């Protein structure tokens, strides 16, 4: 199964209104510090970054590090300026990549 | 997609809706506390933060499993079960052709007998997702198992393991007190499969029971063994009338 992502963006907002955006991505976030029962190190496997663009313009970027829980939930706020789409892109170790988009109508 | 839009609409209702929700949930929790004659779901023992994770229907951690479960349901189940499965999860474990089976086993029986498909392994992502999605359809309904829980009750009361403990020593005699920093709940399985923070993922009631037995340093039972199913049935019968919370979040 492909990576599971959920984004929560209000479908419509008033111009200039501050909107809350919540994103959830399904990922084990293996820290790279744990050992298997047989002793060898479990290699790190984490999501490294989340980038959000609003009508093509980058509005939010986060670098993620080990010691975050699995399935990281990231929430942030932005100002609703124009109708359009928000694009979300996660990338990480072992070529991990996931994306989502959401439409917003600004009145 | 539908779910996501629905969830967005839920999140969008603004302050008035939120206030109404809070008032409603306050009334609900008061009502359940009264109706439940001292029985408390594990939810009530959790911190506010963990409760908020369970209440977040749009971006709570169990949502990922529900999305998987919905996809599987549409692929494998919706063709026959057109009415959905509202209420089904409240009635398991139940007798099926004279044998006691839990919801996981019932799903696999349907797969093997009707769909001629391979059963999902216990604790597989697919089985957990599907049972979570089926359980979600009964959320808020009272648990109403009907099979005879005598064998499971005997298991619950029996002292076992190197620590010579029975389930009842903690969950009947000392609920609400602490064991190694964690609150001991009354042991009502109201929200399985759960997203457990300690597991960083989903798990079934049998996984939970096995880790409890390991903590008692008792002989453990394989996933799907009759002893565990009987214990599941007894726990569900103790929780009869309590509301199903599937998929719950637990610490």
Description of the molecule:
The complex is a heterodimer of chains A (107) and B (251). By secondary structure, chain A is mainly β. Chain A has a single domain, classed as Immunoglobulins (Immunoglobulin-like). Chain A contains no helices and eight strands. Chain A has strands at residues 5-8, 12-13, 18-25, 47-54, 57-63, 73-79, 84-92, 97-106. In chain A, the strands form two sheets. A five-stranded mixed β-sheet of chain A has the order 2-8-7-4-5, with no helix packed on it. A three-stranded antiparallel β-sheet of chain A has the order 1-3-6, with no helix packed on it. The radius of gyration of chain A is 16 Å and the shape is elongated. The mean pLDDT of chain A is 94. Chain B has 251 residues and is mainly α. Chain B folds into two domains: 1-38; 42-250, Cytochrome Bc1 Complex, Chain D, domain 2 (Orthogonal Bundle). Chain B is built from ten helices and seven strands. In chain B, strands 6-5-7 form a three-stranded mixed β-sheet. Chain B has a two-stranded antiparallel ribbon with strand order 1-2. In chain B, α4 crosses α6 (125-136), α5 packs across α6 (125-136) and α7 (150-157) packs across α10 (226-238). Chain B is globular and about 50 Å long. Residues 7-19 and 30-36 of chain B have low confidence and may be disordered. The interface between A and B is medium-sized, with 21 and 19 residues.
The name CATH uses for the topology of the largest domain in chain B is Cytochrome Bc1 Complex, Chain D, domain 2
Could you say how many structural domains of chain B there are in total?
2
Query: What overall form of chain B do the CA principal axes indicate?
Result: globular
CATH architecture of the largest domain in chain B: Orthogonal Bundle
Low-confidence stretches of chain A: none
The count of β-strands of chain A is 8
- Mean residue pLDDT of chain B: 88
Mean pLDDT rating of chain A: 94
CATH architecture of chain A: Sandwich
Low-confidence stretches of chain B: 7-19, 30-36
């Amino acid at each position: 199964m492909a990576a599971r992502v959920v984004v929560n963006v209000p479908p419509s907002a008033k111009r200039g209104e501050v909107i809350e955006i919540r994103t959830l991505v399904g990922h084990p976030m293996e820290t790279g510090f744990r050992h298997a029962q047989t002793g060898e190190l479990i290699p790190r496997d984490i999501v490294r970054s989340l980038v959000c663009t609003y009508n093509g313009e980058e509005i939010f970027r986060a670098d993620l590090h080990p010691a975050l829980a699995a399935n990281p939930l990231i929430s942030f706020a932005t100002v609703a300026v124009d109708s359009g789409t928000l694009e979300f892109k996660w990338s990480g170790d072992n070529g991990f990549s996931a994306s989502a988009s959401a439409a917003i109508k600004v009145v | 997609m539908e779910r996501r839009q629905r969830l967005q609409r839920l999140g969008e209702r603004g302050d008035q809706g939120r206030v109404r929700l809070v008032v409603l949930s306050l009334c609900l929790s008061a009502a359940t506390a009264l109706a439940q004659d001292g029985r408390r779901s594990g939810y009530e023992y959790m911190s506010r933060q963990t409760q908020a994770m369970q209440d977040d229907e749009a971006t709570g951690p169990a949502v990922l499993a529900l999305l998987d479960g919905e996809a599987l349901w549409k692929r494998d189940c919706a063709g026959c079960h057109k009415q959905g499965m509202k209420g089904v999860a409240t009635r398991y474990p139940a007798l099926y052709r004279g044998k006691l089976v839990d919801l996981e086993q019932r799903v696999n029986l349907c797969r093997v007998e009707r769909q001629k498909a391979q059963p999902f392994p216990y604790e597989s992502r697919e089985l957990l997702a599907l049972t979570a999605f089926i359980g979600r359809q009964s959320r808020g309904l009272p648990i109403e198992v009907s099979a005879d829980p005598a064998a499971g009750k005997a298991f619950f009361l029996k002292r076992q393991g190197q620590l010579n403990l029975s389930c009842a020593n903690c969950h009947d005699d000392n609920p609400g007190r602490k064991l190694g920093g964690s609150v001991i709940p009354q042991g009502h399985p109201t929200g399985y499969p759960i997203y457990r923070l300690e597991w960083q993922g989903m798990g079934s009631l049998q996984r939970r029971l096995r880790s409890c037995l390991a903590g008692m340093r008792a002989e453990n039972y394989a996933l799907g063994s009759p002893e565990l199913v009987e214990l599941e049935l007894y726990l569900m019968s103790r929780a009869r009338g309590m509301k199903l919370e599937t998929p719950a979040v637990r610490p």
